[in-house]
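Intended use. Records such as the Malate dehydrogenase entry shown here are meant for training and evaluating sequence-to-structure methods. They are not intended to support clinical decisions.
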Amino acid sequence: MVKAVVLGAAGGIGQPLSLLLKTNPLVTELSLYDIVNTPGVAADLSHISTPAKVVGYLPPDDGLKKALTGADIVVIPAGVPRKPGKSILNAQVINAGIVRDLATGIATAAPKAFVLVISNPVNSTVPIVAEVFKKHGVFDPKKIFGVTTLDVVRASTFVSEILGDLSLAPKVVVPVVGGHSGIVPLLSQSSHPLPSGFAQESLDKLTNRIQFGGDEVVKAKDGAGSATLSMAYAGVEFANKIIRAVKGEKGIIAPTFVNLAADKEGGEALKKELGTDLDYFSAPVELGPEGVVSIKALGKITDFEAGLVKAAIPELQTNIEKGVTFVGASK
Ligand code: NAI
């Protein structure tokens, strides 16, 4: 039995993400929460002939608590997306408050659930969830994840495009590390190497495209929001990995933004490798029934990649501190 909950389920990401979760036969209950429209989304999805029972909840009558009770896995795409011409900072503050309040709901109604944070800025919203859980005495770093899978998915797709064969896209694995913003694709470790003689200029371009892939979508949507469909796909890729790991499948590895205390030994080794004292980082993580089993080292990377990692650290540190301070300053 797996109960999956989507918070922000009526949104641009929330709806296709809920649809994809409904297609996972391992999910037996799908609980949809949003401040609007969940009864309609739930009624629609409930007609799909897969095992999950679908129920929609709204805020009145303890809707959040009811949605979360008994949850095994909670995915959070609630918030406001960035829009061209609108201040990103404004969206960030709104999202910080939304995520803090939802995290409070999870900490009280489903403290043992796996929490998958999609709402941006992930580098701050993940520390926000962690700090709220600490306040409630239920913090387990092994179970809180920032979803960076869209960066991973984009890397696989763009590399396969360069290799001239999109059918490779599902098989190409590129570790993506750093933060979500502050993304560093380790293309030198791609399961499918780039063509020999791939010029540095082309490598710069490809790296930049993976780092700023979101901008392509924001621009093409021309005011209608940011990535939703590809994000829903990526979110469910990651959620399904968690569900498979919980069911006992071994050796599942995925890059994700985690608190490095989730694996003391691996976390400390990574900090040493990075030469910093960051509390959070996005790195390939092995998943198991209790969440994080181990955090992987970066391993052999090129000078170019090492430079990108180094450059990402100060902003990452600031983002993390912002999240921690935000909760500290909240009553
Ligand atoms: P959207 O505006 O279409 O949907 C957001 C949904 O959240 C809406 O249905 C809204 O009613 C709901 N919501 C707002 N306040 C809520 C609350 N307190 N409780 C429950 N639900 C609430 O936005 P979209 O495009 O789905 O994006 C959602 C978030 O995902 C944004 O923060 C965006 O920046 C982020 N995102 C993250 C990515 C990643 O790679 N991690 C990629 C793309 C977007």
